[in-house]
Amino acid sequence: MMVISPQNVTYFKRWALLHQKAKEQGFGWGMLEEEDGWHQYMGIDVLSFSPKQWDEIRLATERIGRIYQKMYEFLMSEDGSPLFSRLALPVSTWEVASVSSSLFSYIVRFDLVVDGEAIKLLEGNTDTPTGIVESATANRLLCDYHRKRSPNRIEEGLCRAWKRWLAETAVPLEKTIYFTSYGWHEEDRETTQFIQRHCPHPRTRYIPIEDIVVSESGVYTKEGMPIEYLYRLYPLEFLEHDYAETGEPVGKWMLNHIANQTVKLLNPPSAYMMQSKAVMALIWETCEQSHPLWSEEEKEWIRLYFLPTYQTNQFGGIPHVVKPVLGREGGGVQIMDAKGNVVEQDEEMWYAEYEKVYQQYVEMPSVTIETWDGPYTGKLLVGSFLLGGEPSGLFLRVGERITGNLSMFVGVSVE
């Protein structure tokens, strides 16, 4: 049930008109249904950055990407391989994660705190980032409504990512690239199909993950066609828990096919490997120890953009955040005060089994936006996309101190 107060009717009419236009262009999840009713997800505000701020965010995104790439290459090397177990990935995925890739991830979203000139990385969404349709289609529509220019270049970035992956994977022209997600989940389905539309390969097909047939011999469509190339908006760590109704371990079979490269993935398994938040702890630790991996310039970047992050709690008397290494959408996150008391926490228990990292707490800046419930003051999180290795646009959300799936999306422009 949704109740709009009389003073907010005018706003809601504007919102509904914009949402209808967005829905016609493939973005239809501007409101989300939860147990307590409908929640607004799409705001109609557009927040502006100065050209200098925009350039600084792009530069930070590029540099953070270079640090991640170098750490990935080190972890895959003989010298760095002893650190692999510290990523705390499920053992069933280790063989998959060791499949090499020239680029650690082709589709990345770094979540940043941008407060004046300070830019800090909270985490890297390197495996299955979303917010892509919002940052492309919806952002352009909101900017047009406010007579502003959308600075995002998401479509160009996706095309670049695909061209790079296609060149490096050498997919034959007669082969089909399959795209999968939960078919019943509108956001995942539409995001996946948006990414599909920007793939220049001549043969592509969307297939709901429910319709994929996995056996010990291979991965197939219901018609029996082999699936050899696959984009999936589905976390690899879920697979170890996936069983058919008959009890067959289809998830483990799928992991074997990926490890054997019977199925080649975009994003590649390296993106899953680098999704572990333990990566940030290893980057910080090796920088603190002046490891020869990093140049003096790179150590400056780490100190500038990364927060102190550890795999054991080093924050006596300092506010900090506890995060599962594979948590998503704020799942399982706790914010602790200087006395070690929980200030705020996410109740999602799925990720509770994973090991934790401990990260210095940094306050996100507050912004006030209009909503159909009236003015709302929340915390601003800046998602910055790195597509095909290059900065490609921003995804802004306003929510609570733990940014969950009910945080609101707003537009971005440069002025």
From TrEMBL:
Domain of life assignment: Bacteria
Record keywords: ATP-binding, Ligase, Magnesium, Metal-binding, Nucleotide-binding, Plasmid
Glutathionylspermidine synthase pre-ATP-grasp-like domain boundaries: 20-412
GO molecular function, one term: ATP binding
InterPro entries: GSPS_pre-ATP-grasp-like_dom, PreATP-grasp_dom_sf
Protein name: Glutathionylspermidine synthase
